[in-house]
Amino acid sequence: MSNITLLDGGMGQELIHRSSQPASPLWSTKVMMDEPEIVQAVHQEYINAGAQVLTLNSYSATPERLARDASEELFEPLQAKAIEIALKAKGDTDTQIAGCLPPLFGSYRPESAPSFEVCLDTYRKVVACQKDAVDLFLCETMSSIKEAETATLAAKESSKPVWCALSLDDNDGMKLRSGESVEAGIKAAKKVGADAILFNCSLPEVISVAMPTLSKCGLPFGAYANGFTKADDLELGGTVDVLTARTDLGPKEYADFCDHWIAQGATIIGGCCEVGPAHIAELKRRLA
After folding, report:
1. What pLDDT shows up at residue 118?
2. Does domain 5-287 fall into CATH 3.30.559.30?
3. Residue 136: in which H helix or E strand, if any?
4. Dihedral pair phi/psi, residue 123, rounded to 5°
5. Where do the domains of the chain lie?
6. Cα dihedral angle (59, 61, 65, 68), rounded to 10 degrees?
7. Are strands 196-200 and 162-166 parallel, antiparallel or unpaired?
8. Alpha carbon distances (Å) from 175 to 122, 183, 199, 216
9. Between 165 and which of 25, 157, 200, 279 could a Cys-Cys bridge form, CB atoms 3.0 to 4.6 Å apart?
């Protein structure tokens, strides 16, 4: 099991649960603005749990989301803040830092993505802010081929490793949230140069359905699932309190899913929303 890379778990939901503030459309970014010490504490808990990779807490700090929910002028300062906090948490450990390329307007709504050219331009702006501070890029919750292609293309220009994580339909493990096939999404990510392909922010059950297809991609692969009962109820500009966390996906149950993916050849494993430090610690225990 020494070839397994262990990612951190979900950040945004962990911050919301610990914050003294109500949920905001800016989600994890709002907590970072008001209570940055919580962000650093969660990063450090993931390191203590055994995570080898921390992802920057910049998921909701895209120009598009900031223009809608706050001010686009906050883009560069918030990117810099996410980097500063992650590096402080890392300290002198050998933990890697992953840059974050998320959906531009919000999760699970691929129809909201702007044109190919606009997506590519925005992702290049994010990459420019992050590239000097990160070890690799994670294009995550990519719900359509367009999102996956443009984020991966922009990240590849950094000359850093690029991992592309696709998000699956809650009801059909063989489709992306856009309705495009998983097979087509994998082929597209591979064509534009992804160094690894993953599934993320999807039900572990649908990831298990799609994993045999991913295992044939010819690249390193893996997954980090969410712990929501259903994710696509979240509307653009909405708040995450409309989503419900599962009660049947504790650390042991989640690790059982990961064991199954590892048995199929997955070498990159972690957690997404509602999968916290205790889950990562259980994965580390099993891997050890």
Report:
1. 98
2. no
3. strand 136-142
4. -60, -35
5. 5-287
6. 150
7. parallel
8. 26, 8, 11, 16
9. 200
| H-only helix segments in 51-172 | 63-69, 75-90, 116-130, 145-156
Token output for 104: 């531009």
Q: Give the contacts of 232 (CB within 8 A, at least 6 positions apart).
A: 108, 170, 177
Q: Which two tokens stand for residue 256?
A: 């059982």
Percent of the chain with pLDDT over 70: 100
What pLDDT was estimated at residue 1? 55
Spatial CA neighbour of 44 closest among 61, 57, 33: 57
Q: CB count, 10 Å around CB of 138? A: 28
How would you label 269-283 residue by residue, b for 16+ Cβ within 10 Å and e otherwise? Answer: bbbbbbbbbbbbbbb
Helical H runs in the chain?
12-18, 28-34, 36-49, 63-69, 75-90, 116-130, 145-156, 182-191, 204-214, 251-263, 277-287
**Beta carbons within 10 angstroms of residue 268's beta carbon:** 23
